[in-house]
Here is the input.
Amino acid sequence: MNAKSDVRLPAVSVIMPVLNEERHLRGAVRAILAQEYSGEMEIVIALGPSADRTDEIAAELVREDPRVHTVPNPTGRTPAALNAAIKASRHPVVVRVDGHGILSPGYIATAVRLLEETGAQNVGGVMHAEGENAWEDAVAAAMTSKIGVGNAAFHTGGDAAPAETVYLGVFRREALERQGGYNEEFIRAQDWELNFRIREAGGLIWFSPELRVSYRPRPSVRALAKQYKDYGRWRHVVARYHSGSINLRYLAPPTAVCVIAAGIVVGAALTPWGFAVPGAYLAAIVAGSVPAGKGLGLKARAQIPVALATMHMSWGWGFLASPKALARKVIASRRPAVLPDADVDVDVDTDAAGTR
Here is the structure.
């Protein structure tokens, strides 16, 4: 990081919501502890009710390094875990990392520099999906292709610029406290919802390709389908909760589901020409999987269309099937901030270890 030698870097709190992460937790924490950052740092792991060895591994990590701490998250919900970790942490810069995310070298130092340079309330970068087998490689390729996720910069990359949302995020603490943290009613889409509130309050969300976090995709078709169905379901809740927050990119999957379903019905009941619609979709994702699978093995390339269709159809169905009652429940639950209000702004260029 290009910082003056006489300027102390701000202290950083890394928060991690964790549930059933025995496979990746140790690697994720090691990547954080290996960051070349001269400011003070702590890691707060919020432990959900895991059914694997996650708690045991977390306890080992606490014993091995005094910078690592844990807090309970009895609900197992991600936003509740994040809020619990924020409350238990104490530094002016808050870095969100998931239990299966691996920070690239220099991530924290770069993010702190970008906060200073841009004046943003939250900065984030690329969700760099990486698989550990053929299926996960296929999902990673689908998640990083425009045919899979549209023009979302944090999936596909792009130039540094203001953004609607970013992957995970590195926040100024006062931004989180002013917004009352994450809305715990949003089981999914809590990042998008929080960033929307920050932007509505006049804050800047900044995307930079300099920031990269390795992400491990879901290990099966079923798990991927559930993940994307939940994404679609909760993105519709956000749209109902914050009117005017939807855009055309989010309407593409539900539109595709409706058009394909209509084509199948017409094809089965009236004329075989109706099957041209799902046939065209299938041809499009097969064609789109060719550039997406460049450099991968044959087995992975063959599974990319399956991953793409699973993502599109699950997201679209989740969006369409999202009940209005769920949004009404979220709206009815609006309550005061769950985090303390920030008393003063923190200058990330000069404050080395500010507390709440």
Summary: The CA atoms of residues 11 and 60 lie 24 Å apart.
